[in-house]
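As agreed, record minuted below.
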Amino acid sequence: MSSSQPNDQPTGDPSKTSLWVKRFGYLALAWGVTMTAVSLLTGSWKSTPPTNRPIKQLTPEYASSDSCQSCHPGNYASWHASFHRTMTQVASVDNVASDMDGLNLSFHGTDYRVERKGAAYFVRNKPTGTPEAAFGQPVQIVLLTGSHNLQIYWTETDEGRTLGQLPFAYVVAEKKWAPMEHTFLVPPGPGQVYQQGDWNIACYNCHVTQGRQRFVTAKKYDSQVSEFGISCEACHSGGREHIEQNRNPLRRFALHWSDGADKTIANPARMDGPTSSLVCGQCHSIWAFKSPAVEIPWSRGGAQYRPGGKELDSRWIVQPTTTDHPEERDALLKTDPHFMTERFWGDGMVRVTGRELNGVMASPCYQGKQFSCLSCHEMHPAKTDAASLATWARTGQLKPELTSNQSCLKCHPGLQTAAGLTAHTHHAAESSGSSCYNCHMPHTTYGLLRAIRSHQISNPNVRESTELGRPNACNLCHLDQTLAWTAGKLGDWYGQKSPALAPDDRELSAGVQWLLKGDAEQRLLVAWSMGWAPAQKTSGSDWFYPFLAFELNDPYAAVRFATWKSLQSLPGFSGYEFDYTVNDAKQKEAVAQAYQKWWFEQRNKQGGYRPETMLEPEGSFRQELLDRMIQQRNHRKVYLAE
């Protein structure tokens, strides 16, 4: 008789059943790992965007810079190394210029403390002198502006994507924290440079790609950008159509062999001078809206201008000396009477950085429609190794061959020989006086705590100094010479007629006069020039010390900074310590210490100081002249809108 087996017992080989169970388990595990990876990879676009800052939201025509990398690796590498990319970044511990964890700062009766939580930084504040328990709730630092000169920190607010600001900036080269008001050329005294919402109102116009303000209610914004920083599509226009069209390899092959323009993308290198320059000028210019009405669609949908366009859609470029846009010009000045003086010299030359197109447009070279920003600068250099790109970024993205006179000699071949050059400049061929830049693009622009070259190509003359107060190129190098000396040289060499000159202009150094009785910008330009190697070599720097020591007590913080850096460039003062943000009493202490250090350690004991420099032969000030210069100082408030 056969035995029967219970129905709930296995009838097959137990080892085989176990094997199938294991296989099933492995498959389930693999499936779980795969789904987890997919989830992680796709989570960025499925996750809820942050609500406490502006967000990246592509519009239909934009594809983002990451889409360019696979086909244009070299161009992508140079863009990625540029300071355009890091103009605005989402803040994290990886891209702040200095470790902020535990940072304590105080200014104008308020203490600030920054703390790290995970990958983010948060700031709290309290009234100075109150107990630790008085620190308020932490506020996250969510965006950064800048990466190589100054870095500025934007904070969340209780108004959605509206931004506030940490009232301190980090001066990168000095590794120093400074109050925001001490990083701009603004009148002394307490006051916040930026208020809540200013980033959403103004900064987004140029510091991101295709920003949209998206006003909600009073002081509340729902701002979006196509990309943080200045991206590929800022210069080449939206790339989505370009990508879709060029998925076809036959189209790419045909374009390659024809060397024709690809109409699905903008290429500034193929444009005429004015059109190409406008690509840069959409940000690097002084512009205004044509009317209040056009600001509404601008704030909702962003700029309608695209690279390759002939004008800036709803905006116009403001040039003080032209007659275009008369109605818009009148309306602008009624709204802001100081608009011109905060941005231009009296003859229309730009006096603040970041507005280079205005200077280029006013240059004679621009009139031929071939000269453009790309005549001197390149956005995508041939060498894309890390060292070459770092040098390129630090040197203003200049073409390698254009760091000398070659940029000008292409159009002025008669000056290519040493004889032709010296006949024109009346200086030795290898001297700084034969540099086209030094004479025709002098340092008469201010920005980022220093003097910067003008981008308006012009000829030096004395009248610009007597009538406008702008230091001329000759006396920015020959700081020890009088305006009468300069007028005589320009008359002898180029037939320029000398303007009427005051007695001081005939007897005293122009540089000394600008430094002592000029306005804040004049003082800064001269103080900076005293640290400029060509001026030190040409003028002799042994007489700079007492004047730079004196200016450590200038009422404008930016002037004190430029003064300090120039003092550090002189023998005996390398690494000289000075906190340019300290109060008046400590500034006066610094003046005394610096002067005594010069007098006892660096002063030429043999004397010989020239009267034009307003020093006695042994080096002391000509006191009556010094007192008169200070009494005549131009105390007008200077606010330069960078």
Q: What stands out?
A: The chain has 25 helices and 18 strands. The radius of gyration is 30 Å. The first strand starts at residue 55 and ends at 56. Residues 476-631 form one domain.
